Amino acid sequence: MKVSKFGGSSVANAEMLKKVANIIQADEERKFVVVSAPGKRFDGDHKVTDLFIELLNQFTAGVDYQETLTQVTDRFRMITQDLSLSNEIPDHLEKKIVELFSLKKSHEQLIDELKSFGEDTLARIFSDYLTMLGIKSTYKNPKEAGIIVSDDYGNATILNEAYEKLYELRNQEGVVVIPGFFGYTKTGELRTFPRGGSDITGSIIAAGVEADLYENFTDVSSVYCVNPKLVHEPKEITMLTYKEMRELSYSGFSVFHDEALIPAFKKKIPVVVKNTHQPDCPGTMIKAEKEDFSKPVVGIASDEGFSSIYVRKYLMNRELGFGLRLLKILVDENISFEHAPSGIDDMSVIVRTHQLTQEKEEKVLKRIQEELHVDTISIQHNLAMIMLVGEGMSQRINVAAKATKAIAEATTNIEMINQGSSEVSMMFGIESDKLQQTVQSLYREFFEHSPSS
Amino acid sequence: MKVSKFGGSSVANAEMLKKVANIIQADEERKFVVVSAPGKRFDGDHKVTDLFIELLNQFTAGVDYQETLTQVTDRFRMITQDLSLSNEIPDHLEKKIVELFSLKKSHEQLIDELKSFGEDTLARIFSDYLTMLGIKSTYKNPKEAGIIVSDDYGNATILNEAYEKLYELRNQEGVVVIPGFFGYTKTGELRTFPRGGSDITGSIIAAGVEADLYENFTDVSSVYCVNPKLVHEPKEITMLTYKEMRELSYSGFSVFHDEALIPAFKKKIPVVVKNTHQPDCPGTMIKAEKEDFSKPVVGIASDEGFSSIYVRKYLMNRELGFGLRLLKILVDENISFEHAPSGIDDMSVIVRTHQLTQEKEEKVLKRIQEELHVDTISIQHNLAMIMLVGEGMSQRINVAAKATKAIAEATTNIEMINQGSSEVSMMFGIESDKLQQTVQSLYREFFEHSPSS
Question: Does residue B420 belong to the interface with chain A, where contact is any CB pair within 8 Å?
């Protein structure tokens, strides 16, 4: 029993939906289908969900929204026409929108309901299409399916009590099509999930029905071992563990939003990333346990936009709680830190630069200076982090040696090395302008040389 | 103008004091002499200060202390006799001790006063000896010199207001001999410094008179670049910076007690470590600023007895303040941490094992588990830390590459790498039983190969 989730670009038009239908037909284990709202069909096109938001903005501003209303409903009419279905569902959608606008609902409630229409309408259409193809299929509204969520507008989370009812979905005959992105509170109010919402729904359904596999169809064939913007046509990863995936998601790997897979992970359900255009390609499998230890490094993640606050104070390491007080100043200012490497008398705190406004930066530096009486304080911006990821890597004696050699070959100075806790990753901080050449050098070392180390 | 301090083994007997007198005579810049109490003359001998403590313990316990009193005063009588001086000073010492015991002083006050007698008596004797040799010399009691200290028994610190008076010592004619280890409070009470007390006095005098050099005479010719217990006859360090010295003092380099040099450092006075037996050897010079950047690594420090507490929690890095709360649990339990390397979802805290009793370890692990709801928690003991030290090292692209290669060549797995903050050091955590072979491999790489990298 499989749960197959299709992202926005996989359901952007009728042509894509035909591909999706073929995928469903090709494997009778594909019993649960979760769909996003139609995404962009071409560069510069609108995502349907963005049109809904524009529509609401126009309505709220009291300007004429008829054109946008037509635009969004026509997106669906084009799909139904191309699939040789009636316009019943798009016409009904138009009525529902007008009706929603006539009700006295809070703005937040309006946003959540309107945002859900893309997924919901598409699920209805696709279920009808499958039926037309002679496949027994049922549209299931999330309320009926049992997706009971917390009462947070735009940021709902699944409640544990939902799972009992979700398990009953297994008994439903034929294919079940469920719209992604939203659920209902215990009192029956609609709430959307945060970003990556359809991935979340898919993951919840997979956990709920205890699926054998959660297939996540998108427009890439698999997860690359390195950011393809930095390395030309890099190798693909065939197998990852949850932990590796999570470390990779740190940066440069945005296949999933981190939290999306939590429900599936908790039930140890394998996840596969597949390409709707090439459904027979194996894709990238993500499992709970490592199976193949032959490659110490499975991927290289990287990200820019870090700053390092450096403090030095003579005899710092004699002061119990010094590090604590330093970090507390940051937390007080609502700045989360990524790393805090410390020497004997010095300590750096690595933070994401976007958290530091000019004003906040000055305040934090001033507070550290005045409250901790440090001898030296400085801040360095424009840092990039590179993370080598591979479970069990820390047991491979020469990974660090190979990595540092590759970085030196790129004539890059290491500002920071962090390998300490994780058995899954080793991190290097460098200056941003050296990022590409350094990642390329690491790629050559770990992915183009001998297959193992 | 130089301040020359002589440690306990350098003033253990008359023969040594003759060497010291020669050293003073050899350079007329050596105007200020700070002496310790006589140390051990041979393996198994008593340090004079230990005899004073034994004496006090006997007095306090109400047992007969006459034998010990004779033993300690005879140590000085032997010195005065061998130097052809009268017994006046040792006889006076004996009277002072008996008198002290007759006064109703607190135990703490008694300890501090008695402990100071070793240095004080030796300074008086040595000044007389210099005078006998025809060198103009004055004994200066710390009160008279102006060493005004805080009111902490056995743990005094110099007060800033002392320096004005100390500067006047420059005007004293001839050689000035000052006993190390103690000072006087503003109300005139004697207080001793903590461990390394004579080094502290020398450092204070050097700062006070704004000396050109603080010479620290001991029984080693210089500071080795690596612990000679781990590497046979290692190279000596000719030049260090304060920062390098401080990082090296982390472990395996116990030439100074860390705090001792602070007064001299604050005034940027160069310090040289010299051997009383070989005063013409250049020794190891310690300066404020790095002058020679040709060698990226000046020394390899290492130490054992570390433990690593490892925690893993999914989505840890989304929790603002997680690291803070973890460290706070340790601080609550009075455990200071050395390093806290963190990954995306995991964090390790490296602590010195001696801080963890079985009970404390269990309590800390339990608190972390229960208060932070971590997914995984474990603790690893028997870790050793190796620290490569060299100011400006972080600017040398291939130091990390060479170091990790050398560690891999020792077939040692790196449990932790910490290079983040310090521009002065790079630290590697390994299993203790690999320490010697790893340090040897690093020594070969950085000290036996090409002179530079």
Answer: yes
Q: What is the pLDDT of residue A69?
A: 96
Kindly state whether residue A179 falls inside one of the protein's structural domains: yes
Domain count, chain B: 2
Structure-token pair, residue B49: 């200060």
Contact residues, B window 88-117, toward A, CB-based 8 Å cutoff: none
Residue A74 lies in a domain: yes
Query: Which positions 308-347 of A are in contact with B (Cβ < 8 Å)?
Result: 308, 310-311, 314-315, 317-318, 320-321, 323-324, 327-328, 331, 334, 336-347
**A317 and B336: CB-CB below 8 Å?**
yes
Length of chain A: 453
Give the CATH number, domain containing residue B46. Answer: 3.40.1160.10
Confidence of residue A452 (pLDDT cuts 50, 70, 90): very low
Cβ of B339 and A342 within 8 Å?
A: yes
**B182 found inside a domain:** yes
Q: Decide which of A170, A187, A208 is a domain's last residue.
A: A208
- The pLDDT, as a whole number, for residue A256 is 64
Contact B324 A327 (CB under 8 A): yes
- CA-CA-CA-CA torsion sign (B122, B123, B128, B134): positive
First-to-last C-alpha distance (Å) of chain A: 38
Structure confidence by residue, pLDDT tens digits, A23-58: 999 999 999 999 999 999 998 899 999 999 999 999
Q: How confident is the model at residue A451 (pLDDT cuts 50, 70, 90)?
A: very low
* Chain pair A-B, CB pairs under 8 angstroms: 199
| Full residue range of the structural domain in which residue A99 is found | 10-208
Closest residue on chain B to A410 (Cα): B397
Q: Report ipTM for this prediction.
A: 0.73
Say which of B323, B397, B426 has its CB closest to residue A327. B323
For residue B371, give the CATH number of its domain: 3.30.2130.10
Which residue, of B156, B188, B210, is where some domain finishes? Answer: B210
User: Coil, helix or strand for A79?
Assistant: helix
Tens digit of each residue's pLDDT (9 = 90 or more) over B274-286 = 999 999 999 999 9
| A37 within a domain of the structure (yes/no) | yes
Which one has a higher pLDDT value, B425 or B110? B110
> Are residue B71 and residue B187 in the same domain, yes or no?
yes
Residues B190-205, mean pLDDT to the nearest whole number: 93
Query: For residue B453, is pLDDT > 60?
Result: no
How many Cα neighbours within 13 Å face the side chain of B390? 25
DSSP code string of B377-396: EEEEEEEEEEEEE-TTGGG-
Residue type, A24: I
